[in-house]
Fold this protein.
Amino acid sequence: MFVTKEMEVAEWPIFQDKFQELQVPGASEDLALFHRNHSGYAVSTIAASGIDIRQANALSPGGWSEVASLDGTGWVGLVGNGDVHTRLGVHIGR
């Protein structure tokens, strides 16, 4: 399960910094953060695993959706351990 949100370019690095603070001993091994640009648009899709909507809203209020999987390619891993993208079925790169 992932939570996703469309974020303006200036917002997602701030969210990434807050998200990294969740990586503490005992955190879910599926805790990961992904990003995908949309060519020609001022927003990007941010996707997080290992947290729920309540936790996502605490880091960046409003606009979150739950999805079972991340479709397509072009995802970039921002935060995560090892091959988390492989375990979660996320297609990194083009």
Remarks:
- The beta strands are 2-8, 32-37, 43-49, 65-67, 76-79.
- The chain has one domain: 2-88.
- The chain has three helices and five strands.
- The two ends are 22 Å apart (CA to CA).
